[in-house]
Write a structure and sequence with these properties.
It is a single chain. This protein is mostly helical and about 60 residues long. It has one helix and no strands. The longest helix is centred in the middle third of the chain and has 63 residues. The chain starts with a helix and ends with a helix.
Length: about 60
């Protein structure tokens, strides 16, 4: 009777460990998603700034001709 009880206990422990690891992976994936979103917004803002600067530079270049 000892071995079946030990097998059940170890199985429960294994499922518990896998659950904890799954939760950790989920939390880290959420954090990574938030970082990707923030980085995408920063890249978009930088692209808009660059476009504005290029437009002004082109206007300045046209006025110098």
């Amino acid at each position: 009777m000892f071995w079946p009880m030990l097998a059940i206990a170890l199985g429960f422990l294994g499922v518990t460990v896998l659950t904890v690891l799954g939760i950790k992976v989920f939390v880290e994936a959420q954090r990574l998603g938030r970082q990707v979103t923030a980085t995408t917004e920063r890249i978009s803002q930088a692209s808009e700034d660059l476009e504005r600067a290029a437009t002004r530079l082109a206007a300045t270049g046209d006025s110098l001709r």
